[in-house]
Write a structure and sequence with these properties.
- The protein contains 2 helices and 8 strands; from the N terminus they run αβββββαβββ.
- The protein is α+β, with helices and mostly antiparallel strands.
- The chain has a single domain, classed as Distorted Sandwich (Ganglioside M2 Activator Protein, Chain: A).
- The strands form 2 sheets. It has a 5-stranded antiparallel beta sheet, with helices on one face. It has a 3-stranded antiparallel beta sheet with strand order 2-3-6, with no helix packed on it.
- Strand 2 (45-53) and strand 3 form a beta hairpin.
- It is globular, with a radius of gyration of 18 Å.
- Residues 1-23 form the signal peptide.
- It holds the Pfam family DUF1091.
Length: 187
Amino acid sequence: MKLFVGLLLYLLQLQVQLSSCWGFYKYTASILQIDVLPHEEELVIDFSDLHIIGRQRALNGTIRILEDMDSKTHQMSVDLLNDPNLNGQWKTMIFAMPLINVCYAMRFFVGSYGKSTMQLGVNTNVPFDGTQCPLPKGTYFTNNLLLNSESWPDVVPYGGLRVNLRFFKHNKPAGGLSLTIDVQKKQ
């Protein structure tokens, strides 16, 4: 019994220590920077016309999908880095999505974590919710797109978070986007 109580107290203390630096509670997120990731041979998705505007750091601009992106020839991966003090000391996080077909990736990643941010018909017409496959060729807009962390995981580290969305064609880089985000505890 004493061992059980001791273990329980230790776990509660550990949770308090972790919650002071990790986002176990609700948090806010704002975009600090966007960068276009390089492609190897053929560019399939172009993020070069996206910009951050205003004090709220909203994402505006266009995304061009240059060909239909199907699940047989196109893939996507997501990797995350953390820099708690935003001082350039980025560390790879264990949270990532390996290279998988683009349709499943959209359904899993954007459908799960981006649904509160990317509101189809409200602030974007980008079909990144995973319901359409192939992703149709076209030029799409984002208008005053603000990050909404309501559908994000409960455990996210505070400070800098870099999200690299990489797109591939036949397993070769074909475009991508890197978002640098500031995650803060909600006041």
